[in-house]
Amino acid sequence: MNTTINDVALGITQAGLSRYINRIYGGNNKAEGAIEIDNLPKKIRLRSTLLINIRPSAGIQALADIMEKDGEAKWGNWIGYVLLPFTIARRDDPLDYVRDAKATIDRKKRSLEAIFTFSIAELALKLFGVKTASALSHRILSHTTMCFSNLVGPLEEIGFYGHPMAFLAPSSYGQPHALMINFQSYMDKMTIVVSADEGTIPNPHQLCDDIVESLRLIKHAVVTKGLA
């Protein structure tokens, strides 16, 4: 399918959210087969903020490389973002979620949206100061439904004062979203972190289960069709 991990992570999230929202509109009917009935409203809109690292050299850099003049490794955050429409729909083929995600991300990559949002934020910071730049970013983010990210973690085991780290599960607070979904890799593991306001997202544990079940269905479809 010529997809990336980011394509798959986004596809899994779209599939999981579709299952979760479909269950909500179906009255949380847990009867066998009830989830297969399409209860989704027409023309549902859900947009996410997707954070993207636009550094020339991604990952953790050595301090010596950062200190080097005119080196590729730079100080500070180089993070742009794109406004990503999520497809909330029932699909007969689970792989259609991944195909939709790939098409959307490829279109966003060609648009250079992440570079433009980073450049505009940097320009606003230099011209008008941190308060105006923060207000601009907050206003844009507050007009989206959720936040989504997929972060690449260390490929080798790391530790803290001699204590090996079992997994990474990052999150944040203060964002104007009732839902944030983070995918974080660490060695050969992938952790899914769901941060939710239970007043808006009832039973977030069910959402986690739906995302995991969507991963299982997509994996099964890949194996069945011999695409692995």
From TrEMBL:
InterPro entries the record matches: O-acyltransferase_WSD1-like (IPR045034), O-acyltransferase_WSD1_C (IPR009721)
GO BP annotation list: triglyceride biosynthetic process
One Pfam match: WS_DGAT_C
One GO cellular component, as annotated: plasma membrane
GO function term, MF aspect, one: O-acyltransferase activity
Chain segments annotated as transmembrane: none
Domain O-acyltransferase WSD1 C-terminal residues, every copy: 75-219
Domain of life: Eukaryota
PANTHER family named in the record: O-ACYLTRANSFERASE (WSD1-LIKE) FAMILY PROTEIN (PTHR31650), O-ACYLTRANSFERASE WSD1-LIKE (PTHR31650:SF74)
Name by which UniProt lists this protein: O-acyltransferase WSD1 C-terminal domain-containing protein
